[in-house]
Amino acid sequence: MASSLSEDEFHRMQLQLIDLRTKNYEVDGKNKKLERDLFEVNEKLEQLEREYSKAKQALSKSKKAKDVEQLIQESDSLQRKLLSQEEEFRLQNQTLMTELATLVASNEELKKELEKSQSSNSGQSGESKDSVSQEEIRRLQAENAALQKNLKVVAEEVVIVVVVVVAAVVVVVVVVVVV
């Protein structure tokens, strides 16, 4: 049984087919437009990612430059401190050397007085002068011992100051080498 279509049904089917083809063309057009838009958006995204990468690298370089600048400033500050400490050390060393020279001269004088006292003791007689001389000798020996002790303390202070200055110089050299 062959079913036959009436002319109205055939005409309606043709209209539906034409309508479907029109809609298909419209959908294809929209699809192509969306594909072009997607391609443009992807290109723009890639461009923005490249710009972001460049900006990130520039920021990284800027941070490194700031770090280097900060290290240079710290190095300059440490060098100024070192120069100040060196000047203080020179002054302190000069003062200690002057004091040391004074103590040595005083020690020499006391030795001479002691020798003079001992030689005059041997030439003089009498127990009272001998006891006075013995007391004078003890006093001079005690004073000599105190001066020797002061001399040792001053020498130790000089050594400590030298060690501190050397340590400061080493720190500055290390900082300069790191920069």
UniProtKB/TrEMBL annotation:
Gene3D superfamilies: 1.10.287.1490
Region named Disordered: 112-134
Low complexity bias locations: 117-126
Key words of the record: Membrane, Transmembrane, Transmembrane helix
Stretches that traverse the bilayer: 158-178
A single GO BP: regulation of neurotransmitter receptor transport, endosome to postsynaptic membrane
GO cellular component, one term: postsynaptic recycling endosome
Keyword Membrane in record: yes
Domain of life according to the entry: Eukaryota
Record InterPro entries: GRIPAP1
Record PANTHER family: GRIP-1 ASSOCIATED PROTEIN 1, GRIP1-ASSOCIATED PROTEIN 1
Name of the protein described by the UniProt record: GRIP1-associated protein 1
Species annotation: Elysia marginata
